[in-house]
């Protein structure tokens, strides 16, 4: 019990340090991206996506806006391959994963961790099977084993039946990957996963 509490405390300290240092170091980059988005079409810089967090609570996931204003009202919550709602600048931000940087704010707020299952859209959480719902016992993260394995997920979502393909084929595999990782995780494996994620951003 004591070791578990120490492990939990250590993870929170790493989250706070990592998010704080990250925001400090990336402040110039964040400012440049924010200005570019604002001047590209005059729309808002940030987008808050509704996601399901730990224990099923809902929260707003911060992202740099990569789609046209009011995109949520013009299509599904998951972006498909060739989605016309994505702006030219947004495509570059998504490819480099820079659109995810504002989620460091979610980490500081305690809604997310640096490492944890990627938070899902409520409409897809509704499809979780009882065994899959156990993933909600963990604090969602900016990166995870599944998000690294499926970092090119958008390219897999094409065709008229893309949503069924996601719900019945891709999502179950992602949940299984993250559940397997979370049951075996350690501070060391989390640090390795973060390094691997940063390295993957260059590819």
UniProtKB/TrEMBL annotation:
Family annotation (PANTHER family): COLANIC BIOSYNTHESIS UDP-GLUCOSE LIPID CARRIER TRANSFERASE, QUINOVOSAMINEPHOSPHOTRANSFERAE-RELATED
Family that this chain belongs to: Belongs to the bacterial sugar transferase family.
One example GO MF annotation: phosphotransferase activity, for other substituted phosphate groups
Protein name: Sugar transferase
Key word Transit peptide present: no
InterPro entries in the cross-refs: Bact_transf
Organism listed in the record: Candidatus Viridilinea halotolerans
Keyword presence, Transferase: yes
Classification of source organism: Bacteria, Bacillati, Chloroflexota, Chloroflexia, Chloroflexales
Protein keywords: Transferase
Domain Bacterial sugar transferase intervals: 11-201
């Amino acid at each position: 019990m004591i070791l578990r509490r120490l492990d939990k405390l250590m993870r929170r300290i790493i989250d706070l340090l990592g998010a704080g240092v990250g925001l400090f170091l990336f402040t110039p980059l964040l400012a440049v991206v924010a200005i570019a988005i604002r001047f590209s079409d005059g729309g808002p810089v940030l987008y808050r996506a509704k996601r399901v967090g730990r224990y099923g609570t809902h929260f707003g996931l911060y992202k740099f806006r990569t789609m046209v204003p009011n995109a949520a009202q013009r299509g599904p919550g998951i972006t498909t391959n060739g989605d016309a709602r994505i702006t030219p600048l947004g495509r570059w931000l998504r490819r480099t994963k820079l659109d995810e940087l504002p989620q460091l704010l979610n980490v500081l707020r305690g809604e997310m961790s640096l490492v944890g299952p990627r938070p899902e859209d409520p409409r897809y959480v509704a499809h979780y099977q009882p065994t899959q719902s156990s993933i909600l016992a963990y604090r969602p993260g900016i990166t995870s084993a599944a998000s690294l394995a499926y970092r090119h997920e958008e390219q897999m979502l094409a065709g008229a039946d893309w949503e069924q393909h996601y719900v019945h084929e891709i999502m179950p595999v992602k949940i299984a990957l993250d559940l397997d990782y979370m049951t075996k995780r350690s501070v060391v494996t989390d640090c390795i996963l973060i390094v691997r994620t940063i390295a993957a951003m260059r590819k």
